[in-house]
Specification:
Distance between the termini: 74 Å
Strand order of the largest sheet: 3-4-5-2-1-8-9
Shape: elongated
Largest sheet: 7 strands, mixed
CATH superfamily of one domain: Beta Polymerase, domain 2
Structural class: alpha+beta
CATH class of one domain: Alpha Beta
CATH topology of one domain: Beta Polymerase, domain 2
Length: 418
Amino acid sequence: MHKDEALAQLRDAAWLKRPAVVQVFELLDGSEGKTKAVGGIVRNTLMGDASGDVDMATMFLPAEVTARAEAANVKAIPTGIQHGTVTLVIDGEAFEVTSLRKDVKTDGRHAEVEFGGDWESDARRRDFTFNALYVGPDGELLDPLGGLEDCLSKNVRYIGDAKKRNKEDFLRILRFYRFFAFYGSGRPDAEGLKASVAQKSKLDQLSAERIWQELKKLLSAPDPSRALLWMRTTGVLATILPEGEKWGIDAIHGLISAERDLGWSPDPMLRLMSILPPMPEKLTELGKRLRLSNAEIDQLQKWAMVEQIDPANPDMDFKASLYWGDQSTTVSALKLSLANMRQKAPESVEAMQKAAGYARLLQIAEEWQQPVFPISGKDLLEAGAAPGPELGEALKALEERWVKSGFSLTREKLLGLE
């Protein structure tokens, strides 16, 4: 996109004219240049996608922001007061308003900040140039550090020395790759790559929760494959995800292609599975190390224990396996198998045939409605069966018979009434 076109797009952005946004600007003297929208919403608008939360930077200190909000009957929440952030809620929309600040002291995890200062000082404490872009209510861009050019060229570039910026918070190593996954083009910035190689060992200073949160965001990008390749090249991926080091990440390309061609929604957990070996013990260790949720660990575990699905499996046999198994896990396994075969299909007739088989089974699995077994233990008791372990065994045998019939046997036939 041309520079003039991008700037015009910013000036005409619909979000700048939303009543709630206008009210925040009016509340905090935006027309006088004391408050500006900053960060992602500005970057995204300049790149052609005017979406995201509207965050604000202001010359006012948190106490003044709060006082002005209360005087206007606007809800103010001290969500990050130690960092100068107050969240204003207007018409159900939340706006993070942060006072201009500069870092006084950092230790790689936390920063001590000093409020006040000017726009350039505030910009210099941010991570990447295209995140240090500001815009006032008139839509005019303030670009203290040349972030617009990097934004338009899709270059993820650190503000200042990359190693020094990472030392302030080593999570920026992962943020570098995450932003590249979403917004980068071509080869990542050389200084950023060098810094990640030199400082990757420092990632162990971060909490597992922060690492997983950042990795999960990266895996949610429209196409994270290039970022993952560079993370593998620099050794960053092996540092945070050693389980996938020898397994490789080549399968991610086929999955991204299948998502695009078949209309699948991006699923960070499915993408994670594609770059990991299906080994339950390793995945349990991964889940504990990265502090995944119990539901996420369970999802990985079930996937790792799924038996290889035969793409030539007859429909009825497959439906029986769906009945006894887990639908969601089966869908995940089929998607990965289908993506893998689609990737090989151009050079293999066998792979093409298998892909067709997996596609057929996937449609069945996605449309599957679990049938309800029409017999209960109470039915058997009423039919004269004696209570005890044999009752459960008899009920199980009837259920297996019902499943083998393609779920067609009626209650009466199962009970011998017909």
